[in-house]
Amino acid sequence: MKKILIIQNKRIGDVLISSVIANNYKAKYPDSEIHLMAYAFTHGVIENNPNIDKIISIDEKELKKFKNLLKKIREVQKEKYDIIFDPYSKLQSRLICKFSGAKQTVGHKSRKKIGNLGYYTHPVEILKEKTKICGKAIEDRIHLLEQVDTFDHINYEPKIYLTEEEKQFKVPAKYQDKPIIMLGILGSTPQKSMPYEYVAQLVDYIASHFNCYLLFNYSPSQKEEADKIYALCQNKSSIILDIYAPSIRDFAVLMNQCSVLVSNEGGTVHIAKALSKPTFTIFSPYINKDDWSSFEDGKFHKSVHLLDFLPNAISELTYEKYKEIEKNPRELYLKLTPEMIIPELEVFLENNLS
Hey, which bits of 87-243 come out as E strands? Predict the structure, then answer.
């Protein structure tokens, strides 16, 4: 029996898609013991996963302190892992791999061309482009998995495993007469958030053209910003105000009761897909769509990006201007207008709101 560690010190979507490593390894080796190390706020997407035997919590700020990193390295050494997978390949996780004592350590080579420096026994190049519908981010993780063994039947789809009790959750009866659309009105960062006035226009369009309820999703720290978007909405009658998911696990349970997700790109999109819910995703201009647009068929899963409509919008920028926009993409975001998005959104909703 082999003991496996997956280190994913990044955000919610990254942790969820890294669970495909555990799912596929456990499918071939059911007697293996698999641990996954992730930030505490991301655990909701991997709880109850039968392919993960232990979830190890880490804190981003604390792990950057040398004494805490050293303590974590010692804890990993005591576990005597056979294989460690490091999909994100951050400095802290690289050092954990280097001094772990594991027989095999697998991670991505640095983009800065500084060499492997002994971090991994199996350093792997990040794929230059996607070749499968699952998207490059998932392909990169499966590529890591395939460094240690041969897997004849790969399942590329992440999955949220709800408990039976969670599956039985129902929204209040007063909201059960019409479909509920979950709206990811804010991205995980300001750079991933569509201009508020555009979000309000999309909300008003949906409310005016579809017989449904609208449910805003945002993190507790984004309440003030969500209120600003609500204030901009002209048609508020369909917006649900008395249901809110305070944690990522609560969101997954609530999303399971909704018909579709319309959202800024981020972890909630991956959650909805892992629950087999239709998704309409709006990408920030500075995000590479091919990296994160997974399982898109144009009907069940659909996304829009500025470059879909204006292919030269970014290539025409100087390097200095692009780096400026990467920090504050509003100037480019404003070019992705509701008038562009609505025809695509209309077809998506007509196909999936039944």
Answer: 104-108, 122-124, 180-184, 213-217, 239-240
Query: Which stretches of the chain drop beneath a pLDDT of 70?
Result: 111-116, 317, 319, 321-322, 325
Q: What is the DSSP letter of 71?
A: H
Q: Please give the DSSP secondary-structure letter assigned to residue 173.
A: G
Q: In angstroms, what CA-CA distances link 43 with 55, 56, 68, 235, 343?
A: 8, 9, 20, 36, 36
Q: What is the pLDDT of residue 290?
A: 84
SS3 call for 304: strand
Specify whether the CB–CB gap between 297 and 269 falls below 8 A.
Answer: no
Pairing of strands 104-108, 279-282: unpaired
Counting Cα atoms < 13 Å in the Cβ hemisphere of 284 gives 21
Helical residues (DSSP H) of 154-195, grouped into ranges: 164-167
**In whole angstroms, what is the distance from residue 341 CA to residue 282 CA?**
9
Query: What does the pLDDT read at residue 115?
Result: 55
Rounded Cα gap, residues 272 and 182, in angstroms: 10
The pLDDT of residue 292: 85
With 0-12 CB in 10 A as exposed, 13-18 as middle and 19+ as buried, what is 171? middle
- Could you tell me how many helices (H) and strands (E) the chain has, helices first? 15, 12
Write down the pLDDT at residue 35.
98
Q: Are strands 260-264 and 180-184 parallel, antiparallel or unpaired?
A: parallel
d(CA 131, CA 281): 20
Q: Beta strand 239-240 with 213-217: parallel, antiparallel or unpaired?
A: parallel
What was the pLDDT predicted at 113?
Answer: 54
271 vs 160: CA distance, rounded Å: 7
Output the six-digit token pair for 270: 């991956």
CA dist 244 and 242 (Å) reads 7
The dihedral built from the CA positions of residue 245, 247, 251 and 254, taken in this order, carries a sign that is: negative
Rounded CA separation 146/239 (Å): 46
